[in-house]
């Protein structure tokens, strides 16, 4: 494999210094069950409530997410680093086994929702835009589930970090 061009390497190094929330994006439907760890997810607007998620087109889950059309963006808490590793493929645990843990609600919303996640956003893909190696998916939100007082899992300088929740006013 050849070395990436200098600008690409410099861009990757710069983006390693951009803190990002860690999410597991999940789906279920006609094409089956799938999920993947992503750090490129953010809000777009609250009218209508919309989030975007960037998904590598070479990912095994990419086609399943697109074909199923409904997803859940599960924002991971500080205690979910193992989940991030599973869904990033780092543990080589098969997809079906990843969802076998009792922490998943596989029935209530029609897509897998991580019980106890700081936030889970369920919605429908309304727009897909290819950009280079990735697809940018715009998700119109149907339901939001939140949990108060949870810490956060972030990705910074190519490592996971836990952030503790602080009471307001401190």
Describe the fold and architecture.
- This protein is of the alpha+beta class.
- It has a single domain (6-163), classed as Pnp Oxidase, Chain A (Roll).
- The protein contains four helices and twelve strands; from the N terminus they run αβββββαβααββββββ.
- The protein has helices at residues 6-15, 62-68, 81-87, 95-98, and strands at residues 20-21, 23-27, 34-38, 41-46, 49-56, 70-75, 104-105, 113-114, 119-131, 134-146, 152-156, 159-163.
- The chain has a seven-stranded antiparallel beta sheet, with helices on both faces.
- The longest helix is centred in the first third of the chain and has 10 residues, at 6-15.
List keywords for this structure.
globular; 42% strand; seven-stranded antiparallel β-sheet; 4 helices; 170 residues; Pnp Oxidase, Chain A; alpha+beta
Quick structural overview:
This protein has about 170 residues and is of the alpha+beta class. It has helices spanning about 5-15, 60-70, 80-85, 95-100, and strands at about 20, 25, 35-40, 40-45, 50-55, 70-75, 105, 115, 120-130, 135-145, 150-155, 160-165. The protein has a single domain (about 5-165), classed as Pnp Oxidase, Chain A.
Q: Indicate the CATH architecture.
A: Roll
Q: What is the overall shape?
A: globular
Terminal-residue CA separation = 50 Å
Largest sheet: 7 strands, antiparallel
CATH fold topology: Pnp Oxidase, Chain A
Number of helices: 4
Number of discrete domains: 1
Proportion of helical residues:
10-25%
* CATH secondary-structure class: Mainly Beta
* Sheet with the most strands: spatial strand order: 3-2-6-9-10-5-4
Order of SSEs: HEEEEEHEHHEEEEEE
Question: What is the number of strand segments?
Answer: 12
Mean pLDDT: 90
Which regions are unreliable across 5 or more consecutive residues at pLDDT < 50?
none
Radius of gyration using CA atoms only? 16 Å
Q: What proportion of the residues form beta strands (DSSP E)?
A: 35-45%
Structural class: alpha+beta
The CATH homologous superfamily is termed: Electron Transport, Fmn-binding Protein, Chain A
């Amino acid at each position: 494999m050849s070395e990436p061009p200098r600008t690409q390497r410099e861009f990757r190094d710069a983006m390693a210094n951009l803190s990002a929330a860690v999410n597991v994006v999940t789906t279920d439907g006609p094409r089956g069950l799938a999920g993947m760890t992503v750090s490129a997810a953010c809000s777009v607007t609250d009218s209508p409530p919309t989030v975007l998620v960037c998904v590598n087109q070479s990912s095994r889950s990419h086609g399943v997410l697109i074909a199923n059309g409904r997803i859940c963006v599960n924002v991971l808490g500080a205690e979910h680093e193992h989940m991030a590793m599973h869904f990033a493929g780092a543990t080589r645990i098969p997809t079906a086994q990843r969802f076998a843990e009792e922490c998943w609600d596989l029935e209530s919303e029609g897509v897998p929702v991580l019980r106890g996640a700081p936030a889970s956003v369920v919605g429908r893909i309304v727009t897909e835009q290819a950009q280079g190696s990735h697809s940018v998916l715009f998700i119109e939100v149907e339901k939001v589930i939140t949990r108060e007082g949870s810490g956060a899992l972030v990705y910074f300088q190519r490592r996971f970090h836990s952030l503790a929740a602080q009471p307001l006013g401190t």
